[in-house]
Amino acid sequence: IIKNIFFLLNYMITFKDLYEASMKEKYSEQLQSIPKNFIFEVAEYLREKKNMASKEEDFSDIIAKTKKQFENAVIIFKEFLLRRRKKILGLVLIASGIDGGISKQDYDNMLEFEKSLFDDFMRCVEVFEKKVETGFSTSNNIVRNETIVFKENVDVFIGIDGEKVGPFDKGDLA
């Protein structure tokens, strides 16, 4: 009786709730606001469904339906998380772009571990951009002079500096 009262006092997520959250995330461009304990609730729901589906009692329709519902819930939840990660990556690209910012609401709609993921991605993008900038600034100073021997006749072509080069005969050095 106490367990049943405790269950009634604590809202448990249902398959319908998970499905609706997934569809809302799928059909919205923005990252959707979800309860802070949503992941915990889904984990608890999946644990309960798995326990019910794994009972070795007589193979009834209820057990079969529970197994199928568990399998579907796992798939829906994985798709839900994938959609959220894709949106977070999109927000990273927006934040690292020319405008350089995302809305406070987008950031607030992230769960704590998603905020951490976003911040980690932003640090990676900053490191990448510094490497690119460093590469551009040092690549202009590098001059490579290598001698090559032509093994066959080569007609005029355009070099990497945009100037015409050649023609070259077999055995020429350049």
Please supply descriptive tags for the structure shown above:
single chain, 174 residues, disordered N terminus, mainly alpha, 2% strand, two-stranded antiparallel ribbon, 6 helices
Question: Can you walk through the features of this model?
Answer:
A two-stranded antiparallel sheet has the order 1-2. The longest helix is centred in the middle third of the chain and has 35 residues, at 61-95. β1 and β2 form a beta hairpin. With 174 residues, the protein is an all-alpha fold. α2 (15-26) packs parallel to α4 (61-95) and α4 packs parallel to α6 (112-139). It is built from six helices and two strands; from the N terminus they run ααααααββ. Helix content is 60%, strand content 2%. It has helices at residues 2-9, 15-26, 38-53, 61-95, 104-108, 112-139; strands at 157-158, 164-165. The N and C termini lie far apart (92 Å).
Q: First CA to last CA: what distance? A: 92 Å
Number of strands: 2
Q: What overall geometry do the principal axes of the alpha carbons give?
A: elongated
The chain-level mean pLDDT equals 84
Number of helices: 6
Which runs of at least 5 residues are low in confidence (pLDDT < 50)?
Answer: 1-9
Q: Output the helix-strand order.
A: HHHHHHEE
Portion of residues in helices?
55-70%
Query: How is the quaternary structure best described?
Result: single chain
Strand order of the largest sheet: 1-2
Radius of gyration: 29 Å
